[in-house]
Write a structure and sequence with these properties.
By secondary structure, this protein is of the alpha+beta class. It has helices at 8-12, 15-21, 40-52, 128-144, 162-168, and strands spanning 24-27, 55-60, 65-70, 85-86, 93-102, 105-114, 119-126. The protein has five helices and seven strands. Strand 5 (93-102) and strand 6 form a beta hairpin.
């Protein structure tokens, strides 16, 4: 079963994706107990813990869509590289980027999250590199999928089948495999 659409670029231009292509208000959904202002340090620690695990989540406020984020963590590192999660670019904010396949289209979330309010803005961009890799993988999988067995050529009228030949020989049982 293909994971991506054949024409991802055209699919990305459809209405569903258009609302995500503009900067849209987001929030970081916090677990219960970490929602209070006095727990600001704990909230940042929780976000960093999720990132060490390679995952997080953002919620688009306008449409109520929650998107899980996956971060690439280099070997031997505890946090994603600054390409994917940059805590140093702007004080008090984290810049996030995450690749995904959403509704059969390869895209990436680009977000800026305020570490005091855990709100910010995000948008989706079409990810050409990921689209090429996923399309190639899909093509490779389709190439190795088993093909249906070829149909047997139709028998011409009057040509005896294996069953008919067995009956002509006087045997009343069908041949093995029938």
């Amino acid at each position: 079963m293909p994971k991506v659409h054949e024409d991802q670029r055209a699919k990305f231009e459809e209405e569903f994706f258009c609302k995500f292509q503009r900067d849209t208000e987001i929030k970081y959904p916090l677990p219960k107990g970490l929602e209070k202002k006095e727990a600001a340090g704990e909230r940042v620690a929780h976000l960093e813990k999720e990132m060490r695990d390679g995952t997080s989540c953002i919620a688009f406020k306008a449409c109520g869509t929650n998107l899980p984020l996956r971060f690439m963590i280099p070997d031997g590192e505890s946090l994603p590289s600054s390409e994917w999660a940059d805590f140093d670019r702007e004080p008090g904010k984290v810049h996030l980027k995450s690749r995904m396949v959403l509704n059969g289209v390869c895209c990436q979330v680009v977000a800026v999250l305020d570490l005091d309010t855990f709100t910010g803005v995000a948008h989706l961009e079409y990810d050409e590199d990921l689209a090429k890799r996923e399309a190639k993988m899909t093509h490779d999988v389709v190439d190795i999928m088993p093909r249906p067995a070829p149909a047997f050529p139709p028998q011409s009228a009057g040509t005896p089948t294996m069953w008919d030949q067995t009956q002509l020989a006087g045997d009343t049982k069908p041949p093995h495999g029938f």
